[in-house]
Specification:
The complex is a heterodimer. In chain A, about 35% of the residues lie in helices and about 15% in strands. Chain A is α/β, with parallel strands linked by helices. Chain A is built from 7 helices and 7 strands, in the order αβαβααβββαβαβα. By secondary structure, chain B is of the alpha/beta class. In chain B, strands 2-1-3-4-6-5 form a 6-stranded parallel beta sheet, sandwiched between helices. In chain B, helix 3 runs parallel beside helix 5. Classes of the chains: A alpha/beta, B alpha/beta.
Chain lengths: ~200, ~170
């Protein structure tokens, strides 16, 4: 299993000028991408949309075909919006990289197991069957650190399955420490950064 | 004395013309019976890139990404899909102040007699509850209201709905 912060650090160190769209554990400001990012202007954390981070990433990828887009998804999030895999593979953007942080639980609601987490669901087969062009899987940091370059060299849409340790939160949402950068700020900043490139 | 016949029909050409006039780049959509005739016309229009989705909530998120990336999308769904997309409309369109025109097939709309379809009875109440302004388009003469919706959505940084109230003529 890969530590959540280690996973986002490896991804960030391989991003170059990619837009990164994280959600849930991967987007947490204490142990997700915001805690390690080297290019916040191109980070667009998505929450409160019932598993739609990959759809947002798809839209950016289609609008910006010359730039890589990384989506850092959660397993529970993807289950809420499983059709998004087919939506993505239908448009098949070559610059789209879909990382699945598979921690087996609803980590932000106290760690309850997600459906299919007890060895029932094979995520690599799900992505392959949905039509992704390439599928990779990593369950330890060393392999991920050395193997990510192969995944990012592949033509998208690419699905990268990561077995990660959950960072379980059990505090009601209204009592949690909020990120200093709001979703609205992130939305405006990434929009402006990409507009500057046009 | 001649009698001028008023043709109260909405043709898909009128809608496509409005999309082109407003420089729409992408149509993120899921089919519905109210906008069925529009599909073939959009497919033949080289300036429009169609993005089909599996469920309506996806449309708002794909559109948000397109907007961030510098494109100019609209979504095209049925009013039942607006109900399904509720949390995406809240969490993305409204919370992020996203300018977006939502073309919505008005299933169940009736101008006369009873309105038996709950999809028709509830949609305007839902839009009111979210504070989303909307315009009804029933005939070609109404089509310019789509441009009004575009202007309003950009000026106010908000989603604006256009309710398509009739089946298309061919």
């Amino acid at each position: 299993m890969i530590n959540n912060t280690d996973a986002v650090r490896v991804i960030d160190s391989n991003r170059e000028d990619a837009v990164v769209v994280p959600t849930m554990n991967a987007g947490n400001h204490r142990f997700g991408l915001p805690s390690v990012t080297t290019n916040q202007n191109l980070d667009l954390p998505i929450s409160g949309a019932m598993g739609k981070a990959s759809n947002v990433g798809l839209g950016i990828a289609l609008a910006q075909p010359g730039r890589k887009v990384f989506v850092l998804d959660g397993d529970g999030s993807l289950l809420m919006n499983l059709g998004a895999l087919v939506t993505t593979s239908t448009k098949a953007p070559k610059n789209f990289y879909h990382f699945l942080f598979n921690n087996g639980v609803y980590a932000v609601t106290g760690g309850q197991p997600i459906p299919g987490s007890e060895g029932v669901t094979n995520w690599e087969e799900v992505a392959r069957g949905a039509g992704y062009a390439a599928v990779f899987s990593f369950d330890n940091l060393e392999d991920f650190t050395t193997g990510i370059s192969d995944a990012l060299a592949a033509e998208g849409p690419v699905f990268i399955h990561l077995a990660v340790e959950p960072e379980i939160e059990n505090t009601p949402v209204q009592f949690r420490t909020r990120a200093s950068r709001t979703a609205q700020q992130a939305y405006q900043e990434v929009t402006a950064a990409l507009a500057g490139d046009n | 004395m001649t009698t001028e016949v008023y043709e109260s029909v909405l043709h898909p050409q009128s809608l496509v013309a409005e999309l082109k006039k407003n420089n729409v780049s992408h149509v993120v959509w899921l089919p519905d019976s109210e906008t069925n005739f529009l599909y073939n016309m959009m497919m033949e229009e080289p300036t429009l890139d169609l993005i089909p989705v599996c469920r309506e909530g996806e449309t708002m998120a794909v559109a948000a990404g397109l907007w961030v990336g510098g494109a100019n999308p609209v979504v095209l769904i049925q009013n039942t899909g607006v109900f399904e997309a509720g949390d995406s409309i809240r969490g993305l369109c409204l919370d992020l102040n996203q300018p977006l025109v939502m073309l919505v097939g008005y299933r169940g709309w009736t101008r006369r007699g009873p309105t038996p379809d709950s999809a028709g009875r509830f949609i305007e109440h839902i839009l009111h509850a979210w504070g989303i302004n909307y315009y009804l388009v029933e005939t070609d003469d109404d089509a310019d209201r789509i441009s009004i919706a575009f202007d309003e959505s950009v000026r106010l940084n908000r989603p604006v709905a256009v309710l398509i109230g009739t089946e298309f003529g061919v």
